[in-house]
Amino acid sequence: MKARPPAPDQDQRDAAVRARGVNVIADAGAGTGKTTLLVERLVRLLAPEDGGPALPLGRVAAITFTRKAAGELRLGIREALLAELARADLAEERRGRLADALGALDTAYVGTIHSFADRLLRLRPVEARLSPSYRIVDDGAELVAETFAVLLQAVEAGTLADELAGRIGPEEARAAQAAFVDALRAGIRAERRVHAYGEFPGLDSLVEALVRTRDVRPVVPA
Questions:
Q1: Which residues of the chain have pLDDT under 70?
Q2: What is the rounded distance in angstroms from the CA atom of residue 7 to the CA atom of residue 27?
């Protein structure tokens, strides 16, 4: 079988694998070998070929965005570790480091960013001000409905400013209270009404849009 020729940017790939103490960005299209580069770099960190200081796998967070990519990454790391362990010219120290990494792979931080965040919160629920028995909401509709119910109850009781204390300024909270009351008095329905051809939007539609774009601070006119 004919060996594959080196990539045109092989020197840059090698530099990314060897780089230490700096941030490395691999910016390339799909199928160009980013995962392969990442796996090779990780194996070199876990078991350096020159016998230098090794990085324990427990200190590594290998994070992806999808479960499929996370599974492929974990499989790639396992295959690379096994391939290195199969070499006949391994020094005993490096063999031991590779074996330790392989044994720790099943419990390592190799997964999605969501599972990584969940794992941190499960370890530190008190510091995160969460109940240890919290659950992840897969469907945002439940979160939106709960948020809107709390807001509407506070508006009707005149306590929205107290409900939002510490999250926005008191003047903004009072303005939000007044805007909700004015909208309801003007005849805007509180909750949307779904019909055969669509829906009549309500204030809950606005709240849903704000919840789904909560990472973007809304622009409030002067």
A1: 1-3
A2: 15
Size of the chain, expressed as the number of residues it contains: 222
Task: For residue 21, give the DSSP letter.
Answer: S
Decide: helix, strand or coil at residue 118. Answer: helix
Nearest CA-CA partner of 70 in 98, 43, 105: 105
Those residues with Cβ within 8 angstroms of residue 76's Cβ, 6 or more apart along the chain or in another chain: 35, 36, 39
- Phi first, then psi: what are they for 70, rounded to 5°? -65, -40
Amino acid at 4: R
CA distance 152 to 158: 10
In whole angstroms, what is the distance from residue 16 CA to residue 41 CA? 7
Query: Rounded to whole angstroms, how far apart are CA atoms 202 and 183?
Result: 10
Q: Which pTM does this prediction carry?
A: 0.62
Q: In this predicted model, what pLDDT tens digit does every residue of 111-156 receive, in sequence order? A: 999 889 999 999 999 999 989 888 887 777 888 888 899 989 999 8
